[in-house]
């Protein structure tokens, strides 16, 4: 039975000073559990994981309406269904997706639901696809939704379009990472980058998204995969994830010359840095492509020789949520995991109670965790 109230993690002010363990920007509050409206689903959150996209809202890099219940990468079980939702059942296991696609806007009709216009608008205002925000404090104050999910809570009301049903035997620790990291990192390689056999790839930034990109590239026959990160422990993890070579940013150019000749066919920038984007472009072969996955601060700009695009045929491609079609891609990626080709368990650093979120922000900034998962309920 669904309780009347739930614990939810609320951000009321952005830009708190670090360390976050001391400034404590996130507060754990008891708020009412909302009922799903028509077209919506109430999900009991079983696992949620911490991502740099959450951090970008907390530090003010991504401006979002506050107060906001954070969290966007999670898995759980269906607890209740709103009117008109007849293709799910209570108890179904689901992965949550941070862009709900309306199905009839320009992007959706073009087969690019990750760029849904209505979904982006709702996410930007803190609302849901089918109506205004349903979260509120105990005193009745509006609380905005984070990317239509707000997963750092014991329950979440989301649009039906924000969930993808999965098999009941997929562990929540695995499933939680497929709604953001897998879609974004794997999709950047296979969808946006359209990597083909016998090509070379360099991945900058070995967080969960970058490591998912490494794993995806390693599945394509004959690829040479180079992984770059300043932290030696992440370089070692990339080799376990399927990279052929790994090194620091200072070693990137030498590794490309040695293992990819005059440049790589595909570069994945998963750092969120304009400077890294510039460096990545310079490492492309003729006709190569840079896929920008990270989220730089809005004030960052890039400066790069314009002639390389027409003169060398290089391409700069943006990739939001990996240009994915979640209902198609999540089952496909889970099949790769079942077949032993996506060792996503390697990315699971540890599991903590929700009360440790503020301290975990510091660990994420320091690069001490790849994916830290959080338990919402006593087990």
Would you kindly provide a written description of the structure presented here, covering whatever features stand out?
With 379 residues, the chain is α/β, with parallel strands linked by helices. 28% of the residues lie in helices and 26% in strands. It has 13 helices and 18 strands. Strand 14 (264-269), helix 10 and strand 15 (284-292) form a beta-alpha-beta unit. Helix 6 (181-192) packs across helix 7 and helix 6 (181-192) packs across helix 12. It is globular, with a radius of gyration of 20 Å. It starts with a strand and ends with a strand. 52% of the residues are buried.
Topology summary:
Elements: E1 5-11, H1 20-23, E2 26-32, E3 40-49, H2 52-58, E4 68-69, E5 73-81, E6 93-96, H3 106-109, H4 117-125, E7 135-136, E8 142-145, E9 155-159, E10 163-166, H5 172-175, H6 181-192, E11 200-204, H7 208-218, E12 224-228, H8 232-240, E13 245-247, H9 252-260, E14 264-269, H10 274-282, E15 284-292, H11 307-312, E16 315-318, H12 326-338, E17 348-353, H13 357-365, E18 371-375
Helix pairs in contact: 6-7, 6-12
Number of strands: 18
- What's the alpha carbon Rg, rounded to whole Å? 20 Å
Nearest-integer average pLDDT: 97
End-to-end Cα distance:
16 Å
Give the amount of beta strand, in percent. Answer: 25-35%
What about the largest sheet? 7 strands, mixed
Shape descriptor: globular
Q: Enumerate the spans where pLDDT stays under 50 for 5 or more consecutive residues.
A: none
- Percent of residues in helices comes to 25-40%
What class, by secondary structure content?
alpha/beta
- Count the DSSP helices: 13
């Amino acid at each position: 039975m669904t309780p009347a109230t739930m614990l939810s993690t609320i951000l009321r002010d952005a830009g708190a000073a670090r360390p976050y363990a001391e400034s404590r920007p996130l507060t754990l509050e008891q708020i009412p559990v909302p009922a799903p409206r028509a077209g919506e689903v109430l999900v009991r959150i079983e696992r949620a994981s911490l991502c740099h996209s959450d951090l970008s809202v907390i530090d003010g890099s991504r401006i979002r309406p506050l107060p906001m219940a954070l969290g966007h990468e999670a898995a759980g079980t269906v607890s209740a269904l709103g009117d008109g939702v007849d293709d799910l059942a209570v108890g179904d296991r689901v992965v949550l997706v941070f862009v709900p696609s309306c199905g009839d806007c320009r992007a959706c009709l073009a087969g690019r639901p990750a760029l849904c216009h209505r979904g982006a608008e709702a996410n930007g205002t803190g609302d849901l696809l089918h109506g205004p925000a349903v979260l509120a404090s105990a005193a009745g104050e509006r609380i905005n939704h984070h990317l239509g999910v707000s997963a750092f809570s014991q329950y979440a009301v989301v649009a039906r379009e924000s969930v993808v049903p999965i098999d009941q035997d997929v562990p929540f620790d695995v499933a939680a990472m497929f709604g953001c990291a897998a879609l974004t990192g794997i999709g950047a390689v296979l969808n946006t980058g359209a990597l083909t056999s016998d090509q070379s790839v360099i991945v900058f930034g070995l967080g969960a998204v970058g490591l998912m990109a490494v794993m995806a590239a390693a599945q394509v026959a004959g690829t040479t995969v180079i992984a770059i990160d300043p932290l030696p422990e992440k370089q070692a993890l990339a080799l376990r994830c399927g990279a052929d070579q790994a090194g620091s940013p200072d070693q990137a150019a030498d590794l490309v010359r040695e293992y990819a000749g005059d440049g790589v066919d595909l570069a994945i920038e998963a750092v969120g840095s304009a400077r890294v984007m510039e460096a990545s472009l310079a490492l492309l072969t003729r006709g190569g492509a840079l896929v920008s996955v990270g989220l730089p601060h809005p004030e960052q700009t890039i400066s790069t020789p314009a002639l390389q695009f027409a003169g060398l045929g290089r391409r700069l491609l943006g990739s939001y949520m990996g240009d994915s079609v979640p209902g198609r891609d999540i089952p496909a990626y889970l099949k790769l995991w079942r077949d032993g080709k996506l060792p996503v368990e390697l990315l699971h650093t540890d599991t903590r109670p929700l009360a440790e979120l503020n301290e975990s922000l510091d660990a994420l900034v320091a690069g001490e965790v790849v994916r830290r998962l959080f338990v919402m309920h006593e087990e």
